[in-house]
Amino acid sequence: MITTEELLAEFSHEAAVTRRPLARIPADRLEWRPHRKSFTLGELGSHIVECVGWARAIFGADEFDFDPRSYRPYRPASVADLLTEFDREAEAGEDALRRATTTAANESWRLKVLGRVRLERSRADALRDFTLSHQIHHRGQLTVYLRLLDVPVPGSYGPTADEPSDHRSEDS
Amino acid sequence: MSDMTAEQAAWMRDFYLRPLKLESATTLKVITAVPVTAADYRPDAASRTALDLLRHIAATDNRFVETVLNGGFSTDSIIPESAQTPAQVGEWYAERHAANRERLAAVPPADLIKPVDFRGMFTWPAVMFLQLGLHHTIHHRGQLSAYLRAMGAKVPSIYGESYDAAQARRAAQTA
């Protein structure tokens, strides 16, 4: 079975990679969006913070009961505020993973909406889907936002046009 | 990771089979959502075109699984040059990935912990390349979904209902 040490290492690594493009968001562009149907930069950053925050929810309890009536998405007042919230959620997720046992990581966790179970899967699977994959997906989107704003894009899985010396690269 | 046992590696392989299948279906949707008329779109002169990006996704998603199957990382091109439209790339990608996943499920556990060198940069047990490949694909697929929106194409649902999918659902409900 997958261990909490492995999950923690992966979570911490991805959070560190995600923080780099978040820190590049221009201070005066939180309201910018590439298309009228898209998230603004502030909304996208906020959503990435939420993705990271799922680690605490998944490893802090046996279930999470979501109430859409009271849900108020976090909206950063500034990039500094966004980074502070991101760091707080990343640290909370790391703490929850450190406290968890490997047995608990492989036990079921439930997502409810207004008391009704909508999803049940192992915590390890839930972490992969809700926190890791979801975060990486939106981080990829964020790098395109940065590119469209002519902000140098940091490497995630290889070099970028702006930072060609990153340590990994893959060809097609 | 160097002290990973074959039993642990087999468990990890089995753990990744689920997201590999799940994410592959989503990846196919995003690849084929690129209109053929917009394949040359790029958000910046320094960026890949949409076609280059989707070919990269299709090739590397298979390449990382094949790294485990072959016990080595190769940079040889695997995607046929003849696949030059999103539909052609998608067809090649889906067929090859499904076959690769089937082969992956049958890899003997001892082969999953064979050390694999990644371009002289690091050496990992073969099975760990599944994680790297999954993350790499999701990252670039996220980029491609941002291309879709910026080029004015429809974005399929990925980790939740997309704006366009929600609109289609509402339209169907009122029809």
| Biggest sheet record of chain B | 2 strands, antiparallel
Straight-line N-to-C gap of chain B: 56 Å
Overall pLDDT of chain A, averaged? 92
Numbering strands along the chain, what is their spatial order in the largest sheet of chain A?
A: 1-2-3
State the separation between the terminal residues of chain A, measured CA to CA.
33 Å
H/E series of chain B, N to C? HHHHEEHH
In helices, the fraction of residues of chain A equals 40-55%
Strand line-up of the largest beta sheet of chain B = 1-2
The profile of the biggest β sheet of chain A is:
3 strands, mixed
Helix content of chain B: 55-70%
Number of β-strand runs of chain B: 2
In DSSP terms (H or I, runs of 4 or more residues), the helix count of chain A works out at 5
Instruction: Give the overall silhouette of chain A.
Output: globular
The two chains with the largest interface, and their residue counts, are: A-B, 37 and 44 residues
Please describe what this structure looks like:
- The complex is a heterodimer of chains A (172) and B (175).
- Chain A is mainly alpha-helical.
- In chain A, 53% of the residues lie in helices and 10% in strands.
- Chain A has 5 helices and 3 strands; from the N terminus they run ααβααββα.
- In chain A, a hairpin with a 2-residue loop joins strand 2 (108-113) and strand 3 (116-122).
- Chain A is globular.
- With 175 residues, chain B is mainly alpha-helical.
- Helices cover 61% and strands 5% of the residues of chain B.
- The longest helix of chain B has 27 residues, at 6-32.
- Chain B starts with 5 loop residues before the first helix and ends with a helix.
- The A-B interface holds A 1-2, 10, 14, 34-35, 37-38, 124-125, 128-129, 132-134, 136-141, 143-145, 147-148, 150, 156-157, 161-162, 167-172 and B 11-12, 15, 18-19, 23, 43-44, 46-47, 52, 55-56, 59-60, 63, 75, 77, 79, 118-119, 121, 131-132, 134-136, 138-143, 145-147, 149-150, 152, 155, 158-159, 163-164.
